[in-house]
Amino acid sequence: MLTYEECLELSDLTADEVDAIAEHEHTNAMIAMGLGHYLITHQGEQKIKKIILDDIEKAKRQKNYAHAEMLHKVLKHFIATHPENRSTKAA
Asked: pLDDT, tens digit, for every residue of 10-19?
C-alpha cells in the first residue's frame, strides 16, 4: 500500500497545491491529489491555476488575508514548477 507521501511524490504536486484543490473542490486530499495529477497529465495546468486563483479570491472576500497570502505563494510555486504556466502571471 502506498503512503500519502508516496502518492504525493508521484502526483507532481505539493501538499499545499493538493490542499488548494481539495479546498476548491470540497473533497479530501487523496481525491484532490488524483484530480490534480490527472489535470497535470492532461494539459489541465490552467485549470489548477484557476482553482488556486479562485481560492485566493474567496479568502480575500472572507478577509482571511493570511490564507490568501499563503495561497498566493502556492500559486507562484505552481507557476514556477510547471513551465507551461510561465507565460502567465500570478495574481
From this structure: 999 999 999 9
